[in-house]
């Protein structure tokens, strides 16, 4: 009985370790000053990806998730160049602090999941999909 309790406790501790290490990484939107881009980068995307690559190589984490998010293709998500200048990436707190010290850094915020709302669907207004009675089938929308 004691061995079973010890095993369960060990599994619980390992599960909680992995759950907390997963929380160390989040998706962030990082705003940069485009006039700070070094001249040797021909595009903003090259500059943005080089920042993430440099941050990933300069920070070291012992987390198992670091292996998944340590490569550039898994962590660099998007380069913004029209409405704002910056990028989105999956970063740890330590990596975010390194980015915040980078020349050209303006601001950052944690990305959040939002749901899409629209007024153009019948689900938005909780309408059913039954055809109207008395209309010919060609006029009734299904």
TrEMBL record:
UniProt entry keywords in alphabetical sequence: Signal
Pfam families: Inhibitor_I9
Matches recorded under InterPro entries: S8pro/Inhibitor_I9 (IPR010259), S8pro/Inhibitor_I9_sf (IPR037045)
Signal peptide positions on this chain: 1-22
Keyword Signal: yes
Residue ranges of coiled coil: none
Record keyword Signal present: yes
Residue ranges constituting the Inhibitor I9 domain according to the UniProt record: 27-116
Domain of life: Eukaryota
Protein name as annotated: Inhibitor I9 domain-containing protein
Organism of provenance: Linum tenue
Source taxonomy: Eukaryota, Viridiplantae, Streptophyta, Embryophyta, Tracheophyta
């Amino acid at each position: 009985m004691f061995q079973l309790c010890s095993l369960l406790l060990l599994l619980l501790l390992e599960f909680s370790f992995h759950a907390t290490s997963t929380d160390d990484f989040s998706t962030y939107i990082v705003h940069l000053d485009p006039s700070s881009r070094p001249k040797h980068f021909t595009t903003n995307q090259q500059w943005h990806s080089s920042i993430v690559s440099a941050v990933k190589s300069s920070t070291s984490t012992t987390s198992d998730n670091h292996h998944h998010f340590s490569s550039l293709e898994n962590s660099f998500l998007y380069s913004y160049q029209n409405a704002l200048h910056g990028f989105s990436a999956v970063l740890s707190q330590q990596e975010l602090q390194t980015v915040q010290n980078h020349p050209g850094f303006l601001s950052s915020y944690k990305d959040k999941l939002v749901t899409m709302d629209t007024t153009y669907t019948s689900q938005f207004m909780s309408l059913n999909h039954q055809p109207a009675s008395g209309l010919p089938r060609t006029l009734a929308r299904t």
